[in-house]
């Protein structure tokens, strides 16, 4: 059960009762009625804005409608207290029995607890990483990869049908540079003294492997040939090699995307022309001269007539070029075609995870999606701010393999996949993140990875100890679901249960906002509540989990502890992190 949804449904029934009694106008729009925790915990368990949003259309004062609704809700069998706050908000306190019964829900559902049908199977495309295929992924790519992957899992848990996608930027000048860099390493593999890597080419040692593989495959076939003959085939070879490297990097992080879309293929099959023709048919294309931009001119600006998209009609600051004066497409034109392709594949909802340097590109891309889909498509862009990699508080900048940056693989190999995945979600995506290679392995409350995993391990140790000391107790979830949960009456116990019971709402709200970091915050709070209860039991013997001579309270507390492991595992599952049974 989702307690918030349950109480909302009960509020709607109470409103129907007021309508039946002639105290409220019928047919009111209740979509804005919500139920959430009150701002102050001492005000109750839940709060609703029902009277605030319905009073005006009903021709009533909010406080009058709130009083009438409170009279109904106070009589509900699960409500212990209902009161009006401020101008018409309603605070509710539910009976302890209601919360205690939620343990059975958690134990019956297992890690499926929190799974929702909110998304109703709607298709969502989440595109993330999409790094240029010119080398291994670095630590900043890891952040976008984890956020995108966790968001996809979160949306799936909330009932959406999710496709994970990678867009291969293989049509720009950077892949020609890759081809030339690979050709140089190819010559090196064949014994040529290449000297210092020329300015403008990629210097990383990772291309030595690609050059050697090309030499093994083709021998001296390209050694003395002009660039016009080898550029295209070596470019294709190098892109494939780099994408294999990237896929392997992502796999080390536990990420496997279902779809890899090629920019070059979109151009070759005429998808860009198709998108252009679609916009033109809607009178959204014209030829004009743009005002010179302030500051540094972008690559697609020219002081001459260009083919422009009427982006300002859809909220952008200026109209945008789609073709250059030589007739070639701009990057923006290719990106429009790609998003149109996603829409035509059945994804009206698109989410892109971009790096920090793409913030200025959001407005034009959202304008283009609105235009090309006739308003039927929506694009949400999540910008991932920079990751500052440190060791003991000192910056780490150089890579042994890449030469200019620290690779994702190096970080995963040093601290582990689960640590990388969790830490990347401990800040909102648009906030900078400090990643200290030493601190992320510390065993302290300041390390959220340890703190959450320790809660799961500590709870697991309680269950193991119970099995050893009280072997006749059935610790299976079905048996624990029958535990006398009404014996759990301490405020810390009830607080922990209420927090666990809020997990279904957290899943839905985080999915709706496209914010997987909320899960990390929740798990930390949940761990803190459990550790607090553990410490309270150290001071008060009556609150320990195993009470000699009181089997009922022991079984009830073991049910609570088992439920905690279930909820933590459910949350970590969204992150792709495995809960641990023991801390090393």
UniProtKB/TrEMBL annotation:
Please list the residue ranges annotated as the Arginyl tRNA synthetase N-terminal domain. Answer: 5-94
One Pfam family of this chain: DALR_1
Q: What is its main location?
A: cytoplasm
Motif 'HIGH' region in this chain: 131-141
What keywords are annotated for this sequence in UniProt? Aminoacyl-tRNA synthetase, ATP-binding, Cytoplasm, Ligase, Membrane, Nucleotide-binding, Protein biosynthesis, Transmembrane, Transmembrane helix
Biological processes per GO annotation? arginyl-tRNA aminoacylation
Residue stretches spanning the membrane: 558-577
Reactions catalysed according to its record = tRNA(Arg) + L-arginine + ATP = L-arginyl-tRNA(Arg) + AMP + diphosphate
Carries keyword Aminoacyl-tRNA synthetase? yes
EC top class, in one word? ligase
DALR anticodon binding domain boundaries: 452-583
Recorded GO molecular functions are: arginine-tRNA ligase activity; ATP binding
**Matches recorded under SMART domains:** Arg_tRNA_synt_N, DALR_1
Indicate where this protein resides in the cell.
Cytoplasm
Concerning its family, UniProt says:
Belongs to the class-I aminoacyl-tRNA synthetase family.
Q: How does it assemble?
A: Monomer.
Q: What is this protein called?
A: Arginine--tRNA ligase
Q: Which organism is it from?
A: Hypericibacter terrae
Query: What taxonomic ancestry is recorded?
Result: Bacteria, Pseudomonadati, Pseudomonadota, Alphaproteobacteria, Rhodospirillales
């Amino acid at each position: 059960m989702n307690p918030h949804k349950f109480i909302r449904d009960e509020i709607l029934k109470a409103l129907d009762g007021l309508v039946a009694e002639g105290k409220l106008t019928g047919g009111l729009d209740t979509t804005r009625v919500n139920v959430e925790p009150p701002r102050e915990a001492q005000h109750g368990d839940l709060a609703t804005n029902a009277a605030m949003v319905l009073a005006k259309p009903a021709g009533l004062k909010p406080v009058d409608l709130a009083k009438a609704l409170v009279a109904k809700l106070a009589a509900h069998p699960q409500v212990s207290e209902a009161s009006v706050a401020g101008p018409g908000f309603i605070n509710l306190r539910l009976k302890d029995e209601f919360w205690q019964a939620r343990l059975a829900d958690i134990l019956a559902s297992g890690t499926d607890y929190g799974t929702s049908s909110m998304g109703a199977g709607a298709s969502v495309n989440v595109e993330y990483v999409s790094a240029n295929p010119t080398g291994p992924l670095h630590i900043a790519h890891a952040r976008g990869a984890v956020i995108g992957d966790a968001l996809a899992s979160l949306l799936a848990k909330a009932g959406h049908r999710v496709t994970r996608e990678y867009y291969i930027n293989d049509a720009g000048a950077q892949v020609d540079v890759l081809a030339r860099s690979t050709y140089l390493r190819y010559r090196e593999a064949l014994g040529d003294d290449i000297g210092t890597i020329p300015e403008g080419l990629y210097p990383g040692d990772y291309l030595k492997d690609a050059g050697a593989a090309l030499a093994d495959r083709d021998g001296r076939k390209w050694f003395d040939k002009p660039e016009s003959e080898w550029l295209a085939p070596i470019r294709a070879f190098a892109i494939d090699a780099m994408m294999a490297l990237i896929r392997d990097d992502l796999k080390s992080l536990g990420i496997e995307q279902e779809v890899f879309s090629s920019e070059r293929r979109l151009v070759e099959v005429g998808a860009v022309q198709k998108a252009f023709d679609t916009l033109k048919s809607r009178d959204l294309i014209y030829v004009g001269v743009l005002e010179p931009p302030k500051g540094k001119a972008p690559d697609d600006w020219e002081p001459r007539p260009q083919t422009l998209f009427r982006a300002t009609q859809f909220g952008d600051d200026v109209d945008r070029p789609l073709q250059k004066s030589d007739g070639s497409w701009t990057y923006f034109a290719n990106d429009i075609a790609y998003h149109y392709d996603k829409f035509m594949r059945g994804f009206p909802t698109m989410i892109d995870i971009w790096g920090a340097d793409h913030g200025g590109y959001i407005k034009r891309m959202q304008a283009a999606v609105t235009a090309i889909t006739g308003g039927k498509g929506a694009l949400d862009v999540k910008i991932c701010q920079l990751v500052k990699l440190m060791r003991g508080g000192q910056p780490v900048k150089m890579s042994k393999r890449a030469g200019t940056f620290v690779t994702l693989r190096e970080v995963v190999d040093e601290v582990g996949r689960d640590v990388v995945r969790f830490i990347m979600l401990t800040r909102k995506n648009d906030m900078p993140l400090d990643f200290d290679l030493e601190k992320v392995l510390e065993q302290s409350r300041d390390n959220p990875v340890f703190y959450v995993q320790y809660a799961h391990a500590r709870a697991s140790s309680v269950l193991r100890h119970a099995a050893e000391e009280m072997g006749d107790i059935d610790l299976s979830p079905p048996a624990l679901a029958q535990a006398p949960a009404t014996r759990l009456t301490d405020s810390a116990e009830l607080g922990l249960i209420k927090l666990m019971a809020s997990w279904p709402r957290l899943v839905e709200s985080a999915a709706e906002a496209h914010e997987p970091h909320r899960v990390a915050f929740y798990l930390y709070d949940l761990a803190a509540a459990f550790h607090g209860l553990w410490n309270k039991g150290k001071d008060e013997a009556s609150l320990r989990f195993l009470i000699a001579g009181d089997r009922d309270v022991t079984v009830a507390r073991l049910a609570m502890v088992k439920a905690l492991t279930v909820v933590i595992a459910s949350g970590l599952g969204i992150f792709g992190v495995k809960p641990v049974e023991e801390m090393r």
